[in-house]
Amino acid sequence: MDFLNHTRYVPMNRRRRIYEGKAKILYEGPEPGTLIQHFKDDATAFNAKKHEIVDGKGVLNNRISEYIFGNLNDMGIPTHFIRRLNMREQLIREVEIIPLEVVVRNVAAGSLAKRLGLEEGTQLPRSIIEFYYKNDELNDPMVTEEHITAFGWATPQEIDDMMALAVRVNDFLSGLFLGVGIRLVDFKMECGRLWEGDMMRMVVADEISPDSCRLWDIQTEEKLDKDRFRRDMGGLLEAYQEVARRLGILNEVERPQGSGPVLVK
Length: 265
Ligand code: TMP
Hints:
Blueprint: H1 2-6, E1 17-20, E2 24-28, E3 34-39, E4 42-45, E5 50-53, H2 57-74, E6 81-84, E7 89-93, E8 96-97, E9 100-107, H3 110-116, E10 123-133, E11 142-143, H4 145-150, H5 156-178, E12 182-196, E13 199-205, E14 213-217, H6 227-230, H7 236-246
Antiparallel strand pairs: 1-2, 2-3, 3-7, 4-5, 6-7, 8-12, 9-10, 9-12, 10-11, 12-13, 12-14
Helix pairs in contact: 2-7
The structure holds thymidine-5'-phosphate.
Residues 103, 109-112, 140, 186-188, 212-214 line the site of thymidine-5'-phosphate.
C-alpha cells in the first residue's frame, strides 16, 4: 500500500487529532509541517442543524478533491495537497487557515439569488467573488474587504492573492467541468498561509468537492451537488458518484495507488 511505503505507520487510534470539523478530521502528520486530512461521511447543512450520515460520501470527496487539487498543483496553482494516502485520507501541508470562505459565483443560485432577488440559473454579468467570515456561532456572515483588513483576518495583499487564486481556480474548474457536461454554478474555497522559512505563500486549502460546489448537468440542469441534501431531493451519493464517473476516477477507487516496480537504467 502507498500508505505503508511512504509514511511512518501510526495506528489510527494513537494519532493526535488536531481538529475536527463537520465533514473532516485533521490528524498530526508523519513529518513536521504535514497533517492528515480525513474525510467523514457526515453531511450537514444550515450550520449542522441538518445532519445525516451518507455512507461512502467521504470516500468520494477524498477522490474528487484529490483529483482537483492534484491538477491545480500540476498547473502551478499552489495548494496544501501532497498526496492521497488511502480511501479516506490525504497527506497535506500544514497551513495557517485564513478564517474566510471565498465563494466564486458564475450563475445566480443559493444565497445570492435570495439576497438580490435573482432567478436561480441566471448567468451573472461576470464572475463574482465574495468573502464569508468562518464563524459557526455567527452563521458565517458575508464580510467585505473593509471588515477583513480592519479586523486583521488578512492584509490587502493577502486579499489580492486570494482573489487571484480564486480566479485561476474558477477558470480551471469551469473548463474541467464543462468538458464533462457540467456547469460550475458556484463554489467555495479556503486559503491558507504556507510558511517556508521566512517566506509565506498563499495556497488553496481544505477541499473542493460536490460538498462545496454547485454543479448542474448542462443538458438537464440536474443538480449533482450538496443542494440535493440541503433541499431534500435525495440521491446525494448517486450524484457524487456521477461526478466522479464523469471525471474518470470512479472505477479506480479500488485500484492500488503504488507506482509499482520502476525500471532502473
Ligand atoms: P450559498 O449560495 O449558500 O452562499 O453557497 C455558495 C457556495 O458555497 C455553494 O457552492 C455552496 C458553498 N458553501 C459551502 O461550501 N459551505 C457553506 O457553509 C455554504 C453556506 C456554502
